[in-house]
């Protein structure tokens, strides 16, 4: 009878060891799945930020071109009314405003592009 009891005890001890191993295996699997899920959520969040950043950049480019162009046209209209000349101040300042706006937009896009590439290099 003692042999049977010893066998049962040994079986339980062996069962506890395998249960410990299966718990560590389960713990490892849960940890891997949690890490994968967290990585997916971070990628989704980053994609969402990228979309909003892109839309914001479109707005920034639009306003950086439109505002100087309209200011140039408004100043040109005022100059044409108050100081008439042989050439059109409106057309001249409209073109100057458009060129200034395009240069401003180019500056902002180049700056954002540099920042994006530096961020990608740091992640690697």
Structural class: mainly alpha
Q: Span between N and C termini?
A: 65 Å
Helical fraction equals over 70%
How many runs of DSSP E, i.e. beta strands? 0
Element-by-element helix/strand order = HH
Average pLDDT, all residues? 79
Molecular shape: rod-shaped
Largest sheet: none
Share of β-strand residues: under 5%
Q: Unreliable stretches, pLDDT < 50, 5 or more residues?
A: 1-11
Radius of gyration: 34 Å
Number of helices: 2
Task: Name its key features.
124 residues; mainly alpha; 2 helices; 0% strand; rod-shaped
Question: Which SSEs are present, and which pair or pack?
Answer:
Layout: H1 2-82, H2 89-123
Describe this structure in words.
By secondary structure, the protein is mainly α. The chain contains two helices and no strands. The protein has helices spanning 2-82, 89-123. It starts with a helix and ends with a helix. Residues 1-11 have low confidence and may be disordered.
Quick structural summary:
The protein is mostly helical and 124 residues long. Helices cover 94% and strands 0% of the residues.
